[in-house]
Amino acid sequence: MVLLSGCAAATRGAPAAGDSLSALRPQYVSTYLHHPGKPVVIRNATILTAAGPELSRGSILLQDGKIAAVGGNVTAPPDAIVVDGSGKYVTPGIIDAHSHLGVYAAPGTESQSDGNEATDPNTAQVWAEHSFWPQDPQIPLAVAGGITVIQALPGSANLIGGRSATLRLIPARTVQAMKYPGAPYGVKMACGENPKRVYGDKGPSTRMGNMAGDRTAFAKAEKYRRDWDAWLTEKEGDPPERDLQLETLADVLRGKAFIQNHCYRADEMAQMLDLAREFGFHIRAFHHAVEAYKIADLLARDSVAAAVWADWWGFKMESLDGIPQNAALLQQAGARAIIHSDSEEGIQRLNQEAAKAMYAGRNAGINVTREQAIRWLTANPAWALGIDSTTGTLEVGKAADVVVWSGDPFSVYSKAERVYNEGWLVFDRADPRAQRTTDFNLGTSAPGVGQ
């Protein structure tokens, strides 16, 4: 809906870029509020900014939730808390682009299994945030590993599994209080074995059935988008009947929601790139993507990220051809590599996963620097989630999402000592008062996490 201040009437024409059906009324808006605190200056640390060369004996100032200064000589206000970073490293907060925290919450019982709406190949109408449990006791463990933001995704039983939620990992009572303000929705899709083995006689049961199901869904969404865009422009007669499934896919076609595509094999990723071209949308990232190295040039050409593991492979047929140099080869080809977890355990040590991938590349003769590898955990996932203008790098004006490490974050011996989420100290390894537990854990575990 276009509202022009000071004009007697709205001008006719195509809907504005921000128009969609969701403009008609608020839809589960973020209620996140910045947590105020004193300025913090971290001095004499090695700083990996994810935006340029690493800084030796550098300093960084966090103020009003933002990065106020970073460099060799930083002036801090007199009331700033001073953190001695001697011998320590500072990085942006880690962003896990593929997490199921909250939707597959602990304890791992059937009643907590809320990530797959495995009732139809297309469940684009479901939203991960409507399953997310903010009291998941796995969340503080992730925070202790340096995680500040996650994309909570539906599972991969479906061709189109629904909307993701981009969340700040802060203590909160509701998922809306964790929602990253202004973050676009992701939409989970899946290729290959998972959707073709779930639905039996209902189908799909083959990879060509998978593709046909996707094409059918987007063909319907094209008409739905045209009908709604025409009504939003003309405002004549009754609006079209609302369809929550097609509404999500229409926002994909408008470029307002980003496809996050579970896909292992190179040939299937290439097929999905063709699908995107047919219907005029952009795949933001392939997830798992164990064969991404085979089409790294195509991913770079189409500006599609690949969220990969360091060395998971071989657990099913479509994952058989994984290699530990995957991320490094993507980096070499100019594609955006991301190290993701897809695991409540792996999310606690994503820095170590990135280290394995970095050294695998180096051992193969690919010169991956620490400054490049840190982007696999920060700047690149921020881009994939559409939040790179506000987080993912240590640059002035970005959110103060910062981790202080005891040493080189690519060392197995280093731990996250302090984690700041938009300037709020959400974890301090030296202070049990800043090692928060969820309500679920109260009275059932000793104080503190990540020991």
What does this protein structure show overall?
50% of the residues are buried. The chain has helices spanning 138-143, 193-198, 207-234, 244-253, 266-279, 296-302, 326-333, 350-363, 370-375, 379-385; strands at 40-47, 55-63, 66-71, 81-84, 89-92, 94-99, 147-152, 160-163, 165-168, 185-190, 257-263, 283-288, 305-308, 337-339, 402-405, 416-421, 424-428. Strands 1, 2, 3, 4, 5, 15, 16 and 17 form an 8-stranded mixed sheet that branches. Strands 8-10-11-12-13-14 form a 6-stranded mixed sheet, sandwiched between helices. Strands 6-7-9 form a 3-stranded mixed sheet. It has 451 residues and is α/β, with parallel strands linked by helices. The termini are far apart. It has 10 helices and 17 strands. It has a domain at 21-31 and 93-390: TIM Barrel (Alpha-Beta Barrel), CATH 3.20.20.140. β13, α7 (326-333) and β14 form a beta-alpha-beta unit. Helix content is 24%, strand content 20%.
Task: Lay out the secondary structure.
Elements: E1 40-47, E2 55-63, E3 66-71, E4 81-84, E5 89-92, E6 94-99, H1 138-143, E7 147-152, E8 160-163, E9 165-168, E10 185-190, H2 193-198, H3 207-234, H4 244-253, E11 257-263, H5 266-279, E12 283-288, H6 296-302, E13 305-308, H7 326-333, E14 337-339, H8 350-363, H9 370-375, H10 379-385, E15 402-405, E16 416-421, E17 424-428
Parallel strand pairs: 1-4, 1-5, 6-7, 10-11, 11-12, 12-13, 13-14
Antiparallel strand pairs: 1-2, 2-3, 5-15, 7-9, 8-10, 15-16, 16-17
Helix pairs in contact: 3-4, 3-5, 7-8
